[in-house]
């Protein structure tokens, strides 16, 4: 029976750039690994293939030490002996944005192709669960199939070969690693032991490979290729085993051919995969080191939605920026989105490395933003300005007009000034009562914070002023320059529709009342419906580790609102009313032997609640001052309707999930963990009903849970102190990772700040919900400039509009092409229905092409006096447009 199957061995390695060790510590082992691998592939004719983990960042790591090895590696790649790509790094599949995942693939596959060949299949061995867009992403960059492991189980897959259906009716053949990606690290040295392994593994694997093409994964984490593996395969062949060494491309081709010959109708799988039956998915990594995750979400958004669009605009006016420079910072983002890095499932050394990269992103992206303001200061006609007039520049990087308020911070010589448009129209503004802290990095020199002027503020010779300005006059995807006219006064003030009520505020859409316990009662004026018990703060123990939340024994959830808070009115104007709610309480210090301690420590939670003019959102900024260990803090919002399912935003649209997971195998039946209904969203979540909308929007935290089919809970803090722990209540048995302390993940004595909002609307306002989330996460960029020429310069205008987009779609990216000087616009239909005749407005003299995700032209699009029509877009899909 053993000889009736064809046995395929894929020699491979899964290389964690940083997990147990930091990148540079791992790089030492990596150098020895590649040296040995190159030698084997060059000198052993029977060592036909090796697959390097479907990613290329580690290859960059190696070549940064040994650049002289590049030609040898290229020869092996061209000869199809060494397979690299298509990822830059192996990311988490749930947390990063759709554009970040796609760009990871684009940059990784192009880097691999520069060596002569990119692996033509997707490779996802170790991500903690799969998202539903995975086959679509891989199809978009030309992949022929996908290999994956975690999240799938035997109940949903009858065979390891199946068809995975993704967005836009994409169907891609997929192979599930039946026993994991590392089930056979390597052949034993003794051949008799090898034959015993075959007798042990083949019966197990035959059940999962119905067409008789059995796959052995010859490798695992950091596993050196076995020098004797080719000899062992030869000996097996001589003993009658039908076996061969193969690679992912060849194996996929063979198994599909066998299925066709056997008239095997492959089953279709659709959706995400979150089962822990066969491998742990660690439902808890979505909130570990939430401070890091909040920052990462900010930088990936700013990169795609602010930095690149600003550069694209100034490029269209004669500016210059190499895509290589942009991709350098994208790669920093990707390195932080490597699955173990973004999970924060690592020793403290890795978390510190991630934090250092966040600092690099802050400095780099600030400078990339600032260079666009500097470009305008050097090119716009400023000859009409006198010595008492400076300029304020505002960039709107969304392809439509906005209806919100921009934050402006300036250091000025006089607090009295008037803002004017180029035609002399006065632009009103509203001073803020409180001054926000802003970055004093030197990267802000002559920008938001003038480095020298900051010192003069301390000396009292200059003043810091902060105000808000209505953005509705800004052009879509454009900029406008305002004069800052000193020695002038005006009676014109910014007018809105917000008014203060007793313990609350109201505008034309919402009425908000803050109750004595700090919860909110909100009336949606569009529907007349009133919501109670909003923003209830909840705290409980966490006996888990960096991988999993796990409840304590006999723990009782603490309702923070039972402690009477202080409530203070801190902003009061017609454009914004803001209250500050402060809770001071105590919670148990730590968890010992699965129980919470009797000793307590202070916990302070400060929430600023804002209602702004013309807004359908109530906005929150919550800071938690943490002094306890081993606990979790969440905020809860009760809908007035119930639903057994929730609807949240994923990378390309929305996804419907059950509030309660009912089809689990169960720990008692051998599952690797009990999967809690803890999910990740991109930007919003709501209950899945067709009534009036109450939706939670987030600018940072992504982990949510729906309780009692009515209450949406958002995780604001998860404090744990172990890399891995054994025998958790929801994950019995061995630890994940290593049983070692990770004190940084306790977030002790830190302030963790999160921003989020509640959107209230009518049932048909889903598109308004999506757009509101986009606007909240894409702020207008403003800079006050006083070190300017006051000359004609190159004569550019004070206002500029670049592109505009159909209101039914959203912008994923507006960037320079990877090669050449064209611009690339990626347009997303995140609706749940197909749409036709999507309009893109561009300059009338530009040539425009429909392209693929790798930016290869497919067909020319007619430019009809500045209008480009895209005939149709399927729901939850994107198109790539190339503009020359």
From TrEMBL:
Signal peptide: none
Record keywords: Glycosidase, Hydrolase, Metal-binding
Keyword hit for S-adenosyl-L-methionine: no
A GO molecular-function annotation: hydrolase activity
InterPro entries on file: Gal_mutarotase_sf_dom (IPR011013), Glyco_hydro/deAcase_b/a-brl (IPR011330), Glyco_hydro_38_C (IPR011682), Glyco_hydro_38_cen (IPR015341), Glyco_hydro_38_cen_sf (IPR037094), Glyco_hydro_38_N (IPR000602), Glyco_hydro_38_N_sf (IPR027291), Glyco_hydro_57/38_cen_sf (IPR028995)
Residue ranges of every copy of the Glycoside hydrolase family 38 central domain listed in the record: 280-358
Top-level taxonomic group: Bacteria
Family label: Belongs to the glycosyl hydrolase 38 family.
Name of protein: Glycoside hydrolase family 38 C-terminal domain-containing protein
């Amino acid at each position: 029976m053993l000889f009736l199957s064809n046995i395929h061995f894929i020699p491979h390695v899964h290389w964690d750039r940083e997990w147990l060790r930091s990148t540079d510590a791992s790089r030492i082992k990596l150098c020895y690994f590649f040296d040995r691998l190159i030698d084997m592939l060059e000198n052993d004719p029977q060592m036909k293939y090796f697959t390097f983990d479907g990613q290329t960042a580690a290859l960059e790591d190696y070549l940064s030490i040994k650049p002289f090895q590049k030609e040898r590696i290229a020869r092996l790649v061209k000869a199809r002996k060494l397979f690299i790509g298509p990822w830059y790094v192996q990311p988490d599949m749930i947390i990063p944005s759709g554009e970040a995942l796609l760009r990871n693939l684009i940059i990784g596959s192009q880097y691999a192709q520069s060596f002569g060949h990119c692996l033509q299949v997707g490779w996802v061995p170790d991500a903690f669960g799969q998202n539903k867009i995975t086959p679509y992403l891989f199809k978009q960059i030309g992949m022929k199939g996908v290999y994956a492991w975690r999240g799938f189980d035997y109940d949903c897959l009858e065979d390891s070969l199946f068809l995975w259906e993704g967005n836009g009716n994409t169907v891609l053949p997929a192979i599930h690693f039946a026993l994991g990606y590392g089930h056979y690290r390597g052949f034993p040295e003794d051949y008799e032991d090898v034959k015993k392994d075959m007798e042990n593994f083949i019966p197990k694997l035959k059940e999962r490979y119905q067409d008789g093409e059995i796959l052995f994964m010859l490798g695992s984490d950091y596993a050196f290729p076995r020098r004797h593996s080719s000899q062992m395969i030869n000996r097996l062949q001589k003993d009658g085993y039908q076996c061969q060494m193969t690679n992912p491309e060849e194996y996929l081709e063979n198994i599909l051919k066998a299925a066709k010959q056997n008239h095997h109708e492959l089953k279709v799988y659709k959706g995400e995969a979150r089962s822990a039956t066969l491998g742990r998915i660690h439902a808890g990594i979505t909130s570990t080191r939430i401070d890091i995750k909040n920052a990462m979400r900010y930088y990936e958004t700013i990169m795609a939605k602010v930095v690149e669009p600003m550069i694209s605009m100034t490029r269209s006016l004669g500016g210059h920026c190499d895509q290589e420079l942009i991709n350098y910072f994208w790669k920093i983002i990707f390195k932080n989105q490597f699955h173990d890095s973004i999970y924060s499932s690592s020793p403290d050394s890795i978390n510190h490395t991630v934090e250092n990269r966040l600092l690099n992103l802050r400095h780099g992206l600030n400078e990339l933003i600032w260079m666009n303001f500097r470009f305008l200061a050097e090119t716009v006609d400023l000859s009409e300005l006198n010595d008492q007039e400076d300029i304020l520049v505002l960039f709107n990087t969304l392809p439509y007009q906005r209806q919100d308020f921009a934050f402006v911070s300036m250091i000025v010589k006089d607090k009295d000034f008037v803002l004017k448009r180029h035609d002399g129209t006065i632009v009103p503004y509203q001073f803020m009562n409180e001054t926000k802290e802003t970055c004093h990095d030197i990267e802000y020199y002559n920008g938001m914070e003038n480095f020298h002027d900051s010192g003069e503020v301390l000396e009292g010779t200059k003043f810091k002023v902060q105000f808000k300005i209505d953005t509705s006059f800004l052009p879509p995807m454009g900029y406008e320059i305002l004069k800052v006219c000193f020695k002038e006064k005006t009676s014109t003030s910014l007018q809105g529709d917000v008014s203060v009520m007793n313990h609350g505020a109201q505008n034309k859409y919402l009425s908000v009342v803050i109750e004595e316990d700090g919860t909110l009662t909100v009336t949606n004026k569009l529907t007349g419906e009133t919501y109670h018990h909003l923003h209830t703060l909840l705290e409980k123990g966490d006996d888990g580790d960096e991988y999993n939340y796990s409840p304590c024994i006999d723990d009782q959830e603490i309702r923070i609102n039972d402690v009477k808070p202080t409530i203070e009115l801190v902003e009061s104007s017609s454009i914004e009313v803001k209250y500050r709610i402060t809770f001071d309480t105590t919670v148990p210090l730590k968890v010992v032997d699965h129980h919470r301690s009797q000793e307590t420590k202070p916990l302070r939670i400060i929430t600023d609640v804002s209602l702004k003019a013309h807004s359908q959102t109530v906005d929150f900024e919550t800071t938690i001052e943490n002094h306890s260990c081993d606990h979790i803090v969440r905020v809860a919002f009760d809908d007035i309707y119930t639903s057994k399912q929730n609807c949240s935003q994923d990378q390309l649209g929305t996804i419907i999930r059950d509030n309660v997971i009912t089809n689990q195998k169960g720990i008692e039946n051998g599952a690797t963990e009990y999967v809690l209904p803890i999910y990740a969203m991109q930007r919003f979540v709501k209950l899945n009903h067709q009534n009036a909308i109450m939706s939670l929007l987030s600018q940072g935290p992504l982990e949510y849970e729906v309780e009692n089919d009515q209450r949406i809970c958002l995780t604001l803090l998860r404090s744990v102190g172990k890399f891995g722990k054994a025998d958790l209540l929801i994950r019995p048995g061995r630890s994940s990772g290593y049983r070692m302390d990770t004190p940084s993940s306790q977030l002790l004595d830190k302030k963790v700040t999160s921003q989020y909002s509640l959107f209230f609307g009518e049932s048909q306002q889903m598109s308004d919900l999506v757009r509101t989330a986009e606007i909240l996460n894409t702020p207008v960029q403003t800079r006050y400039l006083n070190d300017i020429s006051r000359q004609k310069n190159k004569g550019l205008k004070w206002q500029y509009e670049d592109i505009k987009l159909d209101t039914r779609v959203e912008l994923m990216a507006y960037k320079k092409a990877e090669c050449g000087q064209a611009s690339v616009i990626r347009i997303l239909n995140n609706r749940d229905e197909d749409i036709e005749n999507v309009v893109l407005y561009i300059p009338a003299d530009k040539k425009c092409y429909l392209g693929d995700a790798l930016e290869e032209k497919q067909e020319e699009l007619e430019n009809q006096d500045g209008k480009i029509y895209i005939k149709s877009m399927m729901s939850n899909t994107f198109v790539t447009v190339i503009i020359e």
